[in-house]
Structure prediction request, 222 residues.
Amino acid sequence: MNDHTDRTDREKLSLWMDQWRLDHALAAADGPHGGPHCGDECGAGLPPHPFADGLRVGDILLLKPVTPLTARRPTYVVVVAPAGDAGWWRVAPFGRLSTPATPEEVETGLKAHPLRVLCLWNGHAVPARRLTAWAWRVGRITQAALARIGAAGDGRRGPRLVHPLDPRHTYLDEERALWHEWDRAAQAADAADAITPTENGSATDLWEHARAAEDPKGEYGE
Prediction:
């Protein structure tokens, strides 16, 4: 784990800004979709029934590309805690940059590049049935490790957000869209299930529907 305890807020912000500019430059070069779509390779190597033993705190999930943001880039989240009603879980996404943007983002110490920063401020309560339908489980960290990440000191957290013109305000707005899009997709799926319920009564798997529609050799024929 890198020791950044001696960095000032100005130094942290400078490092974050460099990554932010590069991220936007790459997105502009990729065109209007902001990058390649996440296809079948996202779930390569995973067991056919990754949730047979249910969800647990510490599960790391890769969200299926069922919304505009999750289609633009692989989006990973971690199950943080049970959320209120039975069958609901609070999940928090990992950041798209490897440097924390604010004090509510923290370096995890995990080696995988997409898991280096956890965005605790962007947590969201999601029903288990939707997570199991719209995500793959790709890994797990222990509850003790998750607790250590949450309790990390200022040296592993981003700089304070003070100035009203700070570009991090734009970044935060962009990242909030993750759950706005997710909830809209969920509402659309629930409306579709109300008209044509699934056989097992669970949430519609939009990713499977999209794959069926795009597969020329599927059950719909050539």
Notes: DSSP finds six helices and seven strands in the chain. The longest strand covers residues 76-82. The first helix runs from residue 9 to 30.
